[in-house]
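task queued by scheduler; priority normal; single chain, no ligands, no partner chains; default sampling; output format set to structure tokens
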Amino acid sequence: MKNFLKSIGRFWMRYYLLILLLFAGYRAANTPGRFIRGMIWSDAEGYYLYLPAVLIQGGFEDFQVRTEAQFPNYEGTNKRFTKYTCGVAMLELPFFLIGHFWAKVLSMPADGYSYPYIVALQLAGLFYGFLGLLLLKEILARYFKPVVVMMTVAGFFLGTNLYHYILQEPGMSHVYSFFLFGLFVWLTPRFYEQPGLKIFGGMGLLAGLIVLIRPTNILLLLYLLLFGLRSWADVRERLLFFWKYLGALLLAPIASFLVFVPQFLYWKYISGNWLIYSYGEEGFNWLEPRVDMVLFHIKNGWLLFSPMAGLAIIGCLVGMWKNRCNIAPIFLIWLLLLYITSCWWCWWFGGAFGHRQFVEFYVLLAIPYAWLFTQVLESKVLALKIFLVVLWLLLGYYGYMLAVHFRGPHYEWWSWKEVVEYMWQFKFDKKY
């Protein structure tokens, strides 16, 4: 029996990402109807509608959308307007083409909204989500032992709202940004180790797409700038690096600008101006941050629904002083993100499972999380190790159960209590 359990353990450690992918594929194939019906709806439709408008209808004039009230015609025109940028649509494009081909082969409506397009969107979520997890695994493997990497990757996938945005709402922007963040962080050491036009241009394109999808993602650039800095001597060397490669580095902003060209063209076409603030009267109240609500409110409070990620903040608090594994800049980025998020007029960010603003930043937060696990698992206190493993299992179970029983648009106290009470029965699929 002991040898059998060891064999299972070795198999899991070697193939856990594949096992998680197969499990995710099964869950995606059995996605509840409420998510299927809402796959191309509201914000998700706003990111997506560029594809059917351009590739099927040939333009935005008199284009019919599902969420009519949210995407009216631009004032004084018959052109459909979305405040969301086209970065997500760029990444969805290959899967949209697959869905379009499938719709024609099966003689189903080739309108961009029928079932083949929904399945294509699910495939996009799985593809980018698990590429992101694979990149996260590779990033963590630079610093941590395999068991810690496994616990971190599996913990974030099953124990936070990342699961929801990969499988249940893949039309939102977060799974795409999660993948791009993973690629950006994975490439960051190469930026300094192998400087040149290729890496500078590539990182510029990548940064441009990251910011195009969500402007607040620009905070990720701080990770690149502060990477590896642990002393004033390091700061001096970094400044010398930028001075030495200043000419080649100019390729990065040029590449970033090129990514924005399609968006500029849309804004010019829709409004007559190359640059517009598409969110209208929506904005920030910088003097009234609602940090407590962002973290703990029943309306999408981040740590209420993803307490697994809270271990990363503990890792930041403990590990930032010696800045191991770049934890200090990661903590700074998270603090800035928390402040900016809490100042947005709609601090709960609409219908969501947990606070979705943090999902892509899990790529960074996984590092202090893994560092904390390393400190505990390498300690000589057996009780502390057992406590951490039990806590990891319980938080994973809690986060997963809240995700699979989420009904939307967001939890209320009564529905949260209902699911928490159901958890004690240790069943995994509550039928509503």
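post-processing summary
- Residues 143-171+285-432 form one domain.
- The chain is about 65% helix and 0% strand.
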